[in-house]
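Researcher: Can you fold this with NAP in place?
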Amino acid sequence: MRPRPSGSPCFAAIAHARIRTHAYALLQNTVHCSALRCCTEAGYQHTLLVHGKRCFHIELNQYMNAKPEQLQARGGALLTPRSSTAPGAFLAASAGVRLLVGGWTTRGATCRQRSARRTPARWVCMDQGAAPVGTRKSIQALENALQPTAFHRRVTILGSTGSIGTQTLDIVRSCPDKFSVVALAANGSNVELLAEQTHEFSPELVAIRDTARLETYREALRQRGVPEPPHIVAGEDGVVECARYGDADVVVTGLVGCAGLLPTVAAIKARKDIALANKETLIAGGPVVVPLVHEYGIHLTPADSEHSALFQCLQGAPDGALRRIILTASGGAFRDWDVSRLAHVTAADALKHPNWNMGPKITCDSATLMNKGLEVIEAHFLFGIDYDAIEIVIHPQSIIHSAVEFQDTSVLAQLGWPDMRLPLLYALSWPHRLRIEAFRPLDLVQVGSLTFRAPDHDKYPCMLLAYAAGRRGGTMPAVLNAANEVAVELFLRNELDFMGIPAVIERTMQRHDTSDWKQTPTLDDLVAADAWARRTAREEAAKRPIYSAGANLETQKT
Ligand SMILES: NC(=O)c1ccc[n+]([C@@H]2O[C@H](COP(=O)([O-])OP(=O)(O)OC[C@H]3O[C@@H](n4cnc5c(N)ncnc54)[C@H](OP(=O)(O)O)[C@@H]3O)[C@@H](O)[C@H]2O)c1
């Protein structure tokens, strides 16, 4: 049974407040268990309950039949005496209560995908995340690192010809006594570079996803006179085989998009540690990947700069110490643009990142700030942290890579130049600290000033879509991710306008919400949701006006 819509004035008030939320409903005046049940059946996991003059945030599944006193004990924000629906909700929203809201009758509600302002969560279970923090095992690893042991790691790199892959190989090149290469995988668009890497690093196995590129690669090897060509595998199965191959200690996932999911699962099952750059794996596959990490007892270390910063700050912190995380964002290519100009930006505009040199997909995600939204979900799965305790702050200099706040309000941040090799090195060497002479030490005087500002949600709606998908959980983050991949691909081919990216994603999410959403998906469910979302996003994009580079919106597609 789904909640019945009602035209309450409260919705208008909240819309006016420009506060967006997902999966929240407002109850007035009394606790209606039937109403709560109705919300639960509709899949809404959180409710803002207004009881008398108090406002409580509750999790439906846990508090279905709770008494008002129990809810009060759980904590709630005090509303002003004006607790009638519209102003009460408006004030709660303005006060930062996590909401929102549709109108409510005792038997139904209108719940719209609108995201909330943040209030810090009180409970954070770091040991439920994928990253090794806050657990007995991770502390043991830290203790082991205090022993003087010889350090050497055998590395497999998925996506070796990309930005992450080539920077990982830079590290291997800088310290050949510490790292060696077991296997490489790439899509096949740059076989010359792949052959060059094969020549230099002598991997035992190379995987090329695009079978049509195999012969060109073999020819490139012949031209270089590679004395012992590697074992070569091809196709998607070949990439999976590469991920689980041989005696590699750690697999760097530098693939783009959800293509990383199955190889990462294969590597975990082969008991390889994972240095995770490919965030889409965790965003789409979190409900499956996190339990696998625990089941197979491997270490999954984040290579994304923000999550590496959090990971570094959390070393040695006991479970329960974390109160909030602050994800910093450069603001992407359009951070200084007025929102009115965004309708007409081109792919070339979006690919000019002010601070980082990365592959095209993530650079475009940075321009929409979807990258930050994806990182919110990534942080949730890595550190077991509630979405309400994850804050995004724009930090144009990209020197503070992110920060954690502990229960006593002490904040620890990690700083460094915007250079992906540092987080990659830590992901590969954790919990050790290796010295690499080629790394330029940070010079704070040269940096001069560090500035911060709040993100603009009107300009960057993708962030709130990501929060909404994360809060909805289950298959929804996979759908968000797949729809984003399609929308970005179309935008980069000038087949979708820039503002079409969030529009396509939102429509795809809405359609999934009312059709096949699953709360506890299997790997097959996630793969199916990904495929469905790609088809649906294409359909939605086809309804948008055609955008041609440098021009205005043109004719309507049929
Ligand atoms: N770049 C960064 O600084 C950065 C920072 C944080 C996180 N990340 C994340 O790291 C991942 C990689 O990003 P990137 O910027 O390195 O991307 P990129 O420069 O576009 O490189 C992607 C690599 O993956 C390969 N590849 C793509 N699809 C594949 C497939 N289906 N099977 C096998 N190989 C495939 C590509 O091969 P070809 O060269 O043959 O096409 C290339 O080697 C993304 O998830 C991104 O979000 C990147």
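Model: Folded with NAP in place. The radius of gyration is 24 Å.
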